[in-house]
Amino acid sequence: MSYHLSQLGWDEHFASLYHRFDRADATPGRVLRTDRGVCTVLTTDGVTRATLGGSVMIDVARDPALMPCSGDWVVLRRWPDRRTTLELVLPRRTTLIRRTADKDASGQVLAANMNTVAVVEPIHPEPDDARVERLLALAWESGADPLLVLTKTDTTRDPAAIARQVAALAPGVPVLPVSVQRGAGLAELREHVGPGRTLALLGRSGAGKSTLANALAGATVMPVQAIRDADGKGRHTTAYRNLVVLPDGGAVIDTPGIRGVGLLDTEGGLERAFADVIDLAGSCRFDDCRHDTEPGCAVQAALADGSLPPRRLASWRKLRREVEVESGRRSARLSRSRRIPAPPSSRLL
Question: What residue spans carry the region label Disordered (predicted)?
C-alpha cells in the first residue's frame, strides 16, 4: 500500500532538508512509534521497522531528547541484506518535550512536528487548575498552537459554565468542550487536524485522549480501558507515543498518560501560559519589582481588587522557580556533553 506523505505534513521545507541525503538506498519517512530503539516508520511504500543507525545512537547518548519520536521526519537507509536503519532525524519544526525524573534535567520528547497541541482535561470529577497551567506552558513552549479540550462534558449539566471558568487559566487559548458520547465538539476539533496537519493530545491518564483519537479516526485505533468512577483516573493507560494516520489525511499523536509533568527550559512557554500575570508585572512601577510589598506593584493591586486570584500568582511563582532550577541543571549537562567529540554531520553520504 502506498502513501502520499504530503497528507501527513511533508512539504517543501522538509523536502529541502532531505535533499542532500537523497540517494538510491535512502528514503524519507515519518515515525509512528518507537519501541526500545526500534522505530515503526511510514514511507511512501508503506510501514516499515527500522533500527537506529550508529550515528543516531551517538546523538542520543549525547542528548536523550534526540531519540526519534512519534511525528519525527527521518531518513531511512535500506541495506543489501534487507535491513533498514534510521540514519538521521530531520530538524524538528515543533517539539513537545518534558523533563525526565533524573537529576541532570534531561528531556523526553513526547511528540514532534505537530501543528496543534491539545491539552486534554476531563470535566469529571473536576478540572485540575494547576495541571492545566503546567500542561499549557509545555504546549506553548513546543512552538505549536495550544488548544484546551475539556472532555466528558456529558457528565455535567452546564459544561459551558465550566469552560468559562477554565478559560481564565488559558489566556489566548481556545477552549473546546467535547463529549464523544454525544458527538459534541468533535466537528470543531476536526478543524485542527486534516490533510497535512498533525494534532498532539496531551493529558493525564483517563483524560480521554485515546477516546478522542478513536473518534477522529472513525475506528478503534487506540486501546481504551475502563476508569474508576470515584476519581475518573485510568487503571490502564497508553504507555507509549503513537501517531495515528487519519483516513481523510492528517494525523493524531496520542501521548502517554502523564501523572507528573516536569518543565525543562520553558521560560517562553511559561510567560505565554501566564500572559495575564506577565502583563500586570509589566505595569509595575519598578522593573525589578518582586511583587511583594513594593509600592506601585500592579500585581499586588490586582490581588487586592480580586482580578488576580492568589492561587494563580502562587502557581506562576512555583513554576518559574522550577524552570530556573532545571534550566541551570540542563545547561550544566549540555556543557559536559560538549566535551564529547561530535560525529560528522553528513554521515549518510
Answer: 327-349
